[in-house]
Amino acid sequence: MSALLQIEGLGARYGDFQALFDVSFEIAEGELFALVGANGAGKSTTMQVLSGAIRASAGQVRFGGRDITAMPDFERARLGIGLVPEGRRLFPTLSVEENLLVGAATRRRGPWDLRSVYAAFPLLQERRRRTAANLSGGEQQMVAIGRALMGNPQLILMDEVSLGLAPIVVDQVYACLPAMREAGATVLLVEQDLSRTLAVADRVACMLEGRLVLAGSSTELTREAVTEAYFGVRARGAH
Amino acid sequence: MTYVNALVQGIMLGGIFALAASGLSLMYGVMRIANLAHGDLMVLGAYVCALVATSLGVPLPLAALASMATLGTAGWLLQRLALDRAMRLGEMAPLLVTFGLSVVIPNVLLQIFTNNSRTISIGSLGTASFRMSSAVSVGWFPLLTLVIAVLVLGSLQLFLQRTQLGRIIRATSDDTRTVRLMGVDSRMVFGLASAASLATVALAGSLYAMRQGGITPFEGQSLVLFAFEAVIIGGLGSLWGTLLGGMVLGIAQAIGAVISPDLPLLTGHLVFLAVLAARPQGILGRRLA
Question: How far apart, in whole angstroms, are the C-alpha atoms of residue B84 and residue B287?
């Protein structure tokens, strides 16, 4: 497997505040890679740098071998990086179906269109005429994922998709992952929920205070090791 | 019967107001820019139309189209060269850009064309009319402008509702940052919306000048007020609302004129105030969030 996304020495700052320090990792094609960490660890900042919403202050991002560090956000979307943004950010006055159709504005060809998205989320077909503002949180999250899929991304960034949802609803949202992966998408997942992440991810990396502190395959990493990295507690003898 | 007549005349006058207001509504809806130069751009559109018609000897409908193309291009350039940068500085900056334009345009027109009325003659069409009844007589030209207004607003509405580009424009209006993540260059959308806005403005200005028989440099300052009133009466973000708002304003002015020739402007403003007080979101507007 070749690396689809390569991040090297990435830094990011908000004014005087440095949010990311020297973050490096790679994601192979077809992989499901998860970033975990507490609030403010730099997970969402990493996502924003990758989607192009904020510029990296240091380091390099390569996508499919191409340096995209300075590329504007909308060109990255056309190149095949799709984002399911934190807080969903649907277009509130547009209907469910219209939100999905706007997702196709990347004009990329691929397995995802209205029909396949509705097949993955049958509930959305029932709600397709409804205005996005009048959906439940779980339904909104499905639209946000469907909208990103409509752009037929090679790499899909999913930022805190379970945030604020009831566990049973999170299960429904996560149910789309196998179909996405079967269709060939590479996924970068950002989550706070450890056990759910370890269950679905191929590899997991943990962030703490803007740095990547632990990375490994989800089968190798023990829950204890991740928990310690998560809270910044160094296990005695570990280093 | 005089009131029935006023109603009919008001509806037709409202067509022009609605057409003028649709461009304003579009620009505010997509870019959140209240274009203070809107009326002056209408006047500019009328001058371009008059100039093309008289100096090139082109028939008036073609001259109006040429004016639409000219101002549409100007709208694209205005957005890309000035408003884009201003929007990055905050909400106040684009407002000041349009305010600056509203000062520059009429004064430049004054320098070049003097304060005399620039005539646009539509010949016998200006006075041709037919009788609906003994008291109600309908002018062919006002009726034509109403039909044009309904067609333009209707197709604009259909375009926004039914086409992919229309959906993208509405999504951009909802959330500019997010629509960029779908591969949309929002600056292109803004340029397009600005071009469409100024093209309708040019049409509205040309029709207004033809209706009046001519145009003077400073007329835009009352026109911008009518356009704002029509948008707000109808409700922001709804083009059918804008059409309705234009008609309500037209009817108010026409009924004011029946009572006394001094009254039309005042009754128009009073109806506007009444709507603002009773239903601030406008007649067809959504509830303000």
Answer: 29
Mutate to test the interface with A, among B182, B187, B287 (most CBs of A within 10 A): B182
What does the alpha-carbon distance between residue A202 and residue A219 come to, in Å, rounded to a whole number?
8
| Domain residue limits, chain B | 2-278
Q: For B103-129, write each residue's pLDDT tens digit.
A: 999 999 999 998 888 888 888 787 788
Closest CA to A118 of A88, A96, A86: A96
Residue type, B250: G
Sequence-ordered list of residues with C-beta below 8 angstroms from that of B241, at least 6 positions apart, any chain: B234, B235, B282, B283, B284, B285
The predicted pLDDT at position B158 comes to 92
ipTM score for this prediction: 0.89
Residues from chain B contacting residue A147 (CB–CB below 8 Å): 182
Which pTM was predicted?
Answer: 0.89
Residue of A nearest to B172 (CA): A91
**Among candidates A98, A101, A166, A103, which has minimal Cα distance to A132?**
A98
Closest CA to B15 of B136, B138, B117, B105: B138
What CATH fold (topology level) applies to the domain B2-278?
ABC transporter involved in vitamin B12 uptake, BtuC (1.10.3470)
Segment B154-180, tens digit of pLDDT: 999 999 999 999 999 999 999 999 999
* Structure token pair of residue A169: 């609803």
